[in-house]
């Protein structure tokens, strides 16, 4: 048998082994950067930034002071509150509590409402009682606000048993 070889044929060679991939150079173990601080240094406190606008403080209301004819004093400062006496059924006592004065029975639980009137720059009083209120000897109409002035006198009830001098400080 005759073998026919082609003139253009490439002789087969045995396969060559593939060389292993190159090994990377050895890496040093981790070291922190030279400029990294190894001991903790506390930072100075941060100063707060001052706001560009600081609103003005709310105006302070004057103190309403009632001096009872017995000499006992009651002071209050606020936008609105009640003058009266405590009862066991009330969960919130009045702002000016007259429960312990002589003749307290003349005083209603919610005898009067006092409030600050910004327009008049004054405390106002409204009669909410059964027995009435007298301002400088004149009876007040129930439900109508009346201006309180320094030196006024208040009387609760018509028998002149519960009297106060009014001071606004």
From TrEMBL:
<feature type="domain" description="FHA">
    <location>
        <begin position="81"/>
        <end position="140"/>
    </location>
</feature>
<feature type="compositionally biased region" description="Pro residues">
    <location>
        <begin position="42"/>
        <end position="54"/>
    </location>
</feature>
<dbReference type="Pfam" id="PF00498">
    <property type="entry name" value="FHA"/>
</dbReference>
<protein>
    <submittedName>
        <fullName>Phosphopeptide-binding protein</fullName>
    </submittedName>
</protein>
<dbReference type="InterPro" id="IPR050923">
    <property type="entry name" value="Cell_Proc_Reg/RNA_Proc"/>
</dbReference>
<dbReference type="InterPro" id="IPR008984">
    <property type="entry name" value="SMAD_FHA_dom_sf"/>
</dbReference>
<feature type="compositionally biased region" description="Pro residues">
    <location>
        <begin position="12"/>
        <end position="35"/>
    </location>
</feature>
<dbReference type="InterPro" id="IPR000253">
    <property type="entry name" value="FHA_dom"/>
</dbReference>
<feature type="region of interest" description="Disordered">
    <location>
        <begin position="1"/>
        <end position="54"/>
    </location>
</feature>
């Amino acid at each position: 048998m005759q073998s026919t070889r082609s003139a253009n044929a490439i002789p087969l060679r045995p396969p060559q082994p593939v060389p292993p991939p190159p090994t990377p150079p050895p890496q040093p173990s981790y070291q922190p950067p030279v400029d990294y601080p190894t001991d903790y240094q506390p930072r100075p406190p941060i100063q707060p930034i001052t706001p560009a606008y600081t609103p003005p403080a709310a105006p302070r209301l004057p103190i309403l002071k009632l001096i009872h004819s017995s000499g006992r004093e009651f002071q209050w400062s606020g936008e609105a509150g009640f003058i009266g006496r405590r009862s066991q059924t009330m969960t919130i006592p009045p702002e000016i509590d007259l429960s312990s004065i002589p003749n307290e029975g003349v005083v209603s639980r919610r005898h009067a409402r006092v409030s600050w009137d910004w327009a008049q720059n004054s405390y106002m009083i409204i009669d909410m009682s059964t027995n009435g209120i007298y301002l400088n000897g004149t009876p007040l109409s129930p439900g109508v606000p009346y201006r309180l002035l320094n030196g006024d006198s208040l009387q609760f009830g018509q028998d002149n048993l519960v009297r106060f001098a009014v001071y606004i400080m």
